[in-house]
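The instructor's notes for this session suggest beginning with a concrete chain rather than abstract definitions. Hand out the sequence below and ask the class to guess, before any prediction is shown, which regions might be ordered.
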Amino acid sequence: MSKSRAVTAVLGETPYVVTLSDGTHEWLGDEPVDSGGGNRGPTPHQLVLSGLGACTAITLRMYATRKGWALADVTVELHLNPDGAPPGGGSEIRRRITLRGDLTAQQRERLLQVADACPVARTLSGELHTTTLLG
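After discussion, reveal the predicted structure:
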């Protein structure tokens, strides 16, 4: 059984403002004003990118800590389709990782490899099936 909690998204009367909850935490998703939303939270695509960014940074911290490496901090910048939709279809996420700390070139290279192994990166790059049911 999965360790992850279910996330519930509830859209009320305010156009496009979605309240998201995992039973412990609550946050908002929305659309920008120019799309008819109230800009009260990140867009759905920004929420996906934020999950990948958080997972990447956390995975790198966990790995560096386990190895005893001097990783001071991690910044992950993500863009969805920065050059427009790819010609062959699909989407591209461009991820730029900045590592700070007293790290060797080999450690930095290994951390770059570890970033691609974070659970959310694996989920997004693998075959993904969504089953939709009416409640």
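Then share the key points. The chain has three helices and five strands. The CA atoms of residues 60 and 111 lie 6 Å apart.
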